[in-house]
Design goal:
The protein is α/β, with parallel strands linked by helices. It is about 35% helix and about 20% strand. It contains ten helices and nine strands. Strand 8 (about 230-235), helix 8 (about 245-255) and strand 9 form a beta-alpha-beta unit.
Length: about 290
Amino acid sequence: MAASRSTAPPPMTQPADLPDAAALLARADECRTPCGDGAMVWRLWGSGRPLVLLHGGSGSWNHWLRNIEPLAATGRRLFVPDLPGFGDSACPASGNDADAVVEPVLDGLRALLGTAPVDVLAFSFGSLVAALAAAAHPQRIARLVIAGAPVKPLVPPPFKLRPWLHVQDEAQRRAIHRHNLAALMLARPESVTEQTVDLHAQNLLRDRMRERRLSRTDAMARALERLECPLDVIYGREDALYRGRWGEVEAQLRALTRLRSLHFVDGAGHWVQYEEPAAFHAAVAQALG
């Protein structure tokens, strides 16, 4: 096991390298699998060995907006869902936390890919879903790479988010979204662009899975202890979840027999794959080899 540090509406302000979401969607193949009273929506890009990407809480496929094309270019067929209860996907049949999402995801993978084990790259809430799935159904996941994972209970939350649902004024709402992105998701002020606020605001409006009880427990740690597949872990060094507590996190992860590598990406916050995509891709390439 190795540890390493990777370096590296009106018109909207956006970085020059931010892909156009509509154009990216237009190039995707879309599939639907049963979920609750409706369907789980999957977008597929690229060709080659399958790689499943699971997004974070209050998110959708666009949590991977900056990563789709680089990952597909490595010779992978990407399977990128809106998780149940998020984005365009229906809610699961019951429950409103990560444990309720596991079976619809596995059912969808079975419908799309059969029973062969797959590689999974998961972010934040999605990493909890993936860990629970791998622990309960070890034959389904061949390799697991998790980023921004809630491996230690978040009690109390190490960040303070401002409520926004009650706010009617759009400018005030956007100001709250900017604050919350800076408090939790992104480390650098310049990362909180108007385009980023737009993505975040759209995802929040379609989040119907607002319960996060499992992140306040040791559910993730217990699931990781039961893993049978290789595990690689990536964090932004400035991730608000555990900034200042990396010693505790590393100690817990290093005790896992299946841990292959632990990477810290300098200059990145929680949404590491969005804020420092090049360094993130280098870490993923090393993990997936």
